[in-house]
Amino acid sequence: MPANETGPERDKEPAAPRYVITAENLTKTYGDVTAVDGISFSVPAGESFGLLGPNGAGKSTTMKMIGGVSQRTSGNLTIMGLDPEQNGPEVRAHLGVVPQQDNLDEELKVRDNLLVYGRYFGLPMSYLKPKADELLEFAQLTDKAKSKVDALSGGMKRRLTIARSLINEPRILLLDEPTTGLDPQARHILWDRLFRLKEQGVTLILTTHYMDEAEQLCDRLIVVDKGRIMAEGSPAALIRDYSTREVLELRFGSERNASIGAELEGIGERLETLPDRVLIYTHDGEAALEEVSARGLRPLTSLVRRSSLEDVFLRLTGRSLVD
Amino acid sequence: MTEPSTAGRAAGSASGEASASSSESPTAGRTLRAHPPEVSAAKARRWGAFYYAEQVLRVMKGYGWSIFLYSVGQPAAYLFAMGVGLATLVDTSAVSAFGGVSYIAFIAPALLVSAAVMTAATEFTFPVMDGFKWRRVYYGPHASPLTPEQIAAGQIIAVTLRFLLQSVIYFAIVALFGASPSGWGWGSVLVATLAGLSFGLPLMAYATSIKEDKGQFAMVMRFIVMPLFLFSGTFFPLDTLPVLVRWIGWISPIWHGTELGRVMTFGYEESPVLTIIHVLFLLGLAWFGWVLTKRQFIRRMGQ
Ligand SMILES: Nc1ncnc2c1ncn2[C@@H]1O[C@H](COP(=O)(O)OP(=O)(O)O)[C@@H](O)[C@H]1O
Ligand SMILES: [Mg+2]
Q1: Residue B9 above 50 pLDDT?
Q2: B243: left (phi over 0), alpha (psi -120 to 50) or beta
Q3: Is the model's pLDDT at B32 over the cut of 60?
């Protein structure tokens, strides 16, 4: 089912723009490198929109252009109907930004980082002080309020950066690889926080190279590679369109994997040979496995699983997402 | 626990949910509401540079004591060594050699200006590198409504305040030593601040252009600041130097600032044209540095 294709209910007010972000043929080059190569997309208010792609795909560059901190080479871009290059302060006042690289002020205490950042929005201390406490609570950092930033773990710094990005109560939040480098528990805490924001109707734009993160958080996403959009849709729709329901993973040992392809011919709908394993795309993994046994083939290990965005990416580009 | 009625349960659970979400959610404040983005943007457009200056000052306050001690200790040490030690020798020579005043009065404005320039050489170099590269402190505010030129301006405002504060302390000590006979002496505080900016802003533009730290700032200290300090009429009048090195003084903000300071502190006699040239030179160099810095900030941050 195409989730959210029609957008949320509440764009009934006539003045509100249908889309909070629209990009048309957005392009950015650094010298000879084309980091973003003519991408177009629109994001309605309240949607969680993802950019999924490997390192170097151009995700951060796209986020910086949306965030109004990097100038595009060509194409059109509007945020809340405004061009970030003409109305930088107005656009940035609407946003909360979590950059890929934390840029907290390490010399200041945890809570002061929030206060200082809020001042950049001209917010008064009478608002900022209670707000900072509220956000520290939200980020589970209340007991660290008076610590110096450099004493925090990676996950805590990330949560503080997210708390900081919320100080102006933005309705659009840009998250560039919010959980990269975090351990699984820290990631789950973060996902939970982001989910709550999503429930409050905050539009989330996030980049990731984790397919599970994209599946968890995104209503809709674009798969990007080398600065171009390879596919677009909800996670479920992408999997349906570009993969089969199930995948049979077989390992025959590194020297046999390459040659086994011919012997597996005809099982499932599609076969993908990777250096360490063979993937058989099929609607029924168990049946495929029986067929493999019936042909007298004895894999060292076998696993039937559901298709994921990883398989979509492999199908689209012939490469894995995380290398 | 009593079994609530259906209606009661529905109402209870609804209010229960509401209170649970309001106690934990960051945006569901009671009276706590951020002003709308339009207000943020308008305020930032108007006051952004000061918002950033506030932040730089807050960080400076962290090492406020060392700034204070430097501001007090350095002039006290120099004035004592030069003004009391060296002066006993120097003051025996003709009074006219040093503009008709005691040696300590002669060097006091020079030390005031030199101190501001030395401060400029640190405040407009390493912190800029820190902003763009080491700890990337400029990139936080860059994502806020502030603009790159406001971030640059904010840093300059904060450092200007430091120049002022440091120069006021310095001047007070100078005055205590009786080394500022003129009633206009306090004007040397402004002169020192201007000299600091005049030297510091072109340096800031240079610092903004540096991508890799290869010890350039130490070179600036060694091969620019020190020669300027020595050959700017600081410890002896510039015209006692051979013409071969006298030009160093003419292009030196320290010399222009020092001469201007001397006019202020003891009514040093020079042609009014020269006085105007000092002012224009210092203002011009500061302005040139600001224009370059602004352009570099916009370019480097907009990448
Ligand atoms: N400031 C920059 N200067 C030069 N090249 C850059 C710069 N930023 C990114 N790139 C290049 O642009 C491409 C896309 O980078 P990026 O947007 O960071 O990708 P992603 O975030 O998807 O990993 C890469 O090839 C990267 O090397
Ligand atoms: Mg990136």
Answers
A1: no
A2: alpha
A3: yes
The tens digit of pLDDT for each residue in A258-291 reads 788 888 988 999 999 888 889 999 999 999 999 9
Which residue blocks in B63-147 are alpha helix, DSSP H?
64-78, 87-90, 103-123, 126-129, 139-142
Q: Is B64 on the interface with A (CB under 8 A)?
A: no
Domain containing A254 equals 244-306
Q: A191 and A296 share a domain?
A: no
Q: Please indicate, yes or no, if residue A316 is contained in any of the structural domains.
A: no
Q: Do residues A15 and A140 both lie within one domain?
A: yes
Element (H, E) at A77: strand A74-79
What's the domain count of chain A?
A: 2
Domain co-membership, A31 together with A166? yes
Residues paired with A48 in a beta bridge: A204
User: With 60 as the cut, is the pLDDT of residue A12 above it?
Assistant: no
Q: Strand pairing partners for A39?
A: A26
pLDDT bin (cut points 50, 70, 90) of residue A9 is very low
CA distance A92 to chain B (A): 5
A299 Cβ closer than 6 Å to some ligand 1 atom? no
For A85, which residue in chain B has the nearest alpha carbon?
Answer: B302
ipTM, 2 decimals? 0.85
Mean pLDDT of B204-216: 94
